Amino acid sequence: MHREHCLAIVATLAKQLPVYYSTNPRITKIIIMGFLTKVAAKAAPTTETTQSPPAISVNEKKEAQTNAKEEELNGNGPKKEPKEWGYDLYPERRGEAFKPKWSRILLGLEGRESIDRYKCEENVYWCVKNGPLVKLMMGALRSSGCPIDLRRHISCEVCDPTVTGGYDPVLNQIVVCQNMARNRSMVHGVLTHEMIHMFDYCNNDLDFKNVDHLACTEIRAANLAHCSFLSAMFQGDASPFNIKEAHQNCVKSKALASVLAVRNVSRQDAIDAVERVFPKCYNDLEPIGRRIRRNSTDQQKAYMEGPMYGYDVY
Amino acid sequence: MGRQNEKAETNPEEQATALKDAWAIRPCHLYKDEYDDCSSFKARFHQYFIHGKDSDCSQWLTDYKNCERFQQSNGNDVVAGQAIIKSEEQRRQIRLHAHYANNTWEKRKQPPEDWAKPLPEWMEKRNENTYLELKQKELMGLATPQAEGGSFCTIM
Question: Is the residue at A12 inside a domain?
Fold first, then answer.
């Protein structure tokens, strides 16, 4: 009786949902499931217990989620993914093979995953052989005692269209999105950015569950590998009338976006973390040593300078 | 940035062991390139974009002049050589100071133990016979390097 009553309410609710929600089955399902949970919670008899379950602190909760993640990666455990690590953006990280949709195959948008992967891996290898910043980063990692094994530390995968790459701290692996980073320059940018995270993890006791640590490594990556004047302009942090020190705003907003993309924290907490560590992390330019200017010889110069700072020539 | 005078003074004791860090002296044209690049319009724009003011490029020019003197004297002008080495040392100190001043995290004593821990089995299986695996084997000398850029066309 109670269940029928619930379903009747849900049916009424579904009719009243806006067009967008009704055309998006995933969102409709979430709304209805959420509604059912609330109804069930209201209907459930309230039993007064003398002992309330122990509250999980934020850190413990994250620890539990990390353990669940590791269990699942090893083949055990649930298939649920914590938002904490941003695994929802990298579906192949969950061990699921990417299944293209027929409609998108007919449109030519999907169905060439193995070719895309081969091309992506070709681009990765080209960058390793010819990209000055990638070569510098690989030399710096090797001299720090963390050599890169191409098959172990770099993986080309199909990702969510909102990202071009990522760093998986659980497996210590760079993910290059084969469906988004389709040319050498994009792959070079992704590899440089993610290798800065790798360098930080290799040289420092970096805890990705600590928002300050995450903010710092994102600031460094944005500072060294991104935020030329053009990209700052496209991002809205600079304009022909707003040039002075606009680079810092670009780095802050890029780091903020990265922190929010992979961590389940409020915007204000992320802003606070970025502001807290910004002065120290913005000035730390290792192992590149300079903020690269677009269309200049800065990349080559940085690579040539590497041995003077104890980095291997790769 | 004008840290080092063109004619740096050194006493005889210093001169004896003056150029023990001669590896730090770059080819002279690099100092000139750095100065030209630093003082170009594009670089000035970049400096304003980052720092809000022009950077001092004079040290690159000073180093270039000292380098020229050092080269033309066939390495006998120890004073000029010493000046470049000191300048390079200061350049390194400034850069590394910012790195070590970043105390957001603790520095590691040794590399992480799990740096190359084995991947999950399903991932290892997925990575078998990939292009990157082949290239890694080539880099390690476990496979013979293959020529790149071969055509896939065949005449039937």
Answer: no
